[in-house]
Prior knowledge:
6-stranded mixed beta sheet; 3-stranded antiparallel beta sheet
Amino acid sequence: xxxxxxxxxxxxxxxxxxxxxxxxxxxxxxxxxxxxxxxxxxxxxxxxxxxxxxxxxxxxxxxxxxxxxxxxxxxxxxxxxxxxxxxxxxxxxxxxxxxxxxxxxxxxxxxxxxxxxxxxxxxxxxxxxxxxxxxxxxxxxxxxxxxxxxxxxxxxxxxxxxxxxxxxxxxxxxxxxxxxxxxxxxxxxxxxxxxxxxxxxxxxxxxxxxxxxxxxxxxxxxxxxxxxxxxxxxxxxxxxxxxxxxxxxxxxxxxxxxxxxxxxxxxxxxxxxxxxxxxxxxxxxxxxxxxxxxxxxxxxxxxxxxxxxxxxxxxxxxxxxxxxxxxxxxxxxxxxxxxxxxxxxxxxxxxxxxxxxxxxxxxxxxxxxxxxxxxxxxxxxxxxxxxxxxxxxxxxxxxxxxxxxxxxxxxxxxxxxxxxxxxxxxxxxxxxxxxxxxxxxxxxxxxxxxxxxxxxxxxxxxxxxxxxxxxxxxxxxxxxxxxxxxxxxxxxxxxxxxxxxxxxxxxxxxxxxxxxxxxxxxxxxxxxxxxxxxxxxxxxxxxxxxxxxxxxxxxxxxxxxxxxxxxxxxxxxxxxxxxxxxxxxxxxxxxxxxxxxxxxxxxxxxxxxxxxxxxxxxxxxxxxxxxxxxxxxxxxxxxxxxxxxxxxxxxxxxxxxxxxxxx
Length: 663
């Protein structure tokens, strides 16, 4: 009887063995988005920069399929792992160099893509056009096209986001020879239905943060561990609010903690934010649970009231909160931001990077090797709770609004049910601090997905009780962190703000940032486009323009030339000195970029006004298309107008900061 056969192979071996891969019809189409793509890229690039000898992509299940047209090659159906495998192929298309022979292979039929789609010929044609470096835009391959643009944008913006120079040729060689995957070949007559059932129901591996939790709890005396463990568990679920996590897994009265009464009868708000208060409540609940000895009658009576009093899902019915929220960072990332704050508070050396996959190594190297005491570990747990509380109160989350995920900050309040006068905590259904949320959204989209270094000083600032000036602080932090002459890495720069929250650097004039020359406008760092949208939003809001009513910062990955690089009408052409300058560029989604194509200004303007005017797509483009024509004079005027708006914003923030600090 045939058996499963597994081999650890590199992409170089895939080429040498003449392997080709097919996505069968029963597989879903490609669905990876920005977050998954950037996480994989960050992991691969990090392994390359650290000169590791291998990088494991993960397992891939395949089954050989006969291909009479490719007699000297082997073709496999990808059963599991196609999202990672397809993303790797798209990365190879962008990097080229040593990976050219991986993206497409030589066969008796000529060069063909390494991956194809069964009975989806349009998608296969998309792959073929990409390999020939032809323009490819098909509705059936929209997700693949977006992924390709995300990967290109990642490399275009890598230096701006990390302060490191990317050697693409070296990275391509690393991927070719060092990236390894476990290729498991399924026997020919395997019952695929049963196999899919096993794949879909397989258990989830123990995560690194769960291992870290166990290591830390070893330092706490056994009779106290449960309370600290529950504190950690409530923090670890990032896809809900921390007070709801706590309520769902414990018997703690979160309302009483939120509006705890003092000895003189006044209500003291937000004792829930204090870890020591929560720990006392957890320990008291644990003690009551241990001491309570109920009779059978008492147990049966208690059941009647259980759902009404304890079940957190009943709270959801009246809360007005959308069904689902999700975090902008993982719990592993939060732990590392908390560790940085903890180490600085203890005057210990900072970590050297934020990395999900290196969580245990980072904690071990930078803290656990110092043999922390029981009190040290308790301090960390308590800091974790308090930072997580501030994170949920002041930092944006993805909130589902009318079936669309948006960034929002939703504050907590006590609600009272009229039918039984019961109190419970709920999150507001309206946004709190929209300007603050928009600035965070700008930073989230413009920075490296798996680090978000700006969060560390912001969280420390909030933890110190400075929320009244949080917006101004983040504006100051953003300006001096990312619009300054500082040359250190982002983690080194943010460490300066951990030591001195209002740290200052020498700001750069916007003309330096927005008047650079690039061989192609697509190389322009995306941060400046995102930042300008925020600057224009504040300016237009002050002018009470309706253009800001529906404005949000969303993910964009394509730099659009207003006057195209190859205009259909030659008279529309402009000098190269203007073509790739900031004044003639805008950051848009891939779909908007595709619909604009090589049309002239008047046609593009008509399309924009019909489809996007007033819908918050791009405030920069709103200004562009307010012109009646787009010639050299208009481009230069718009360019200067953007620079002036940017410099005025920097000046205003500096003046407000100076006034606040009485300098």
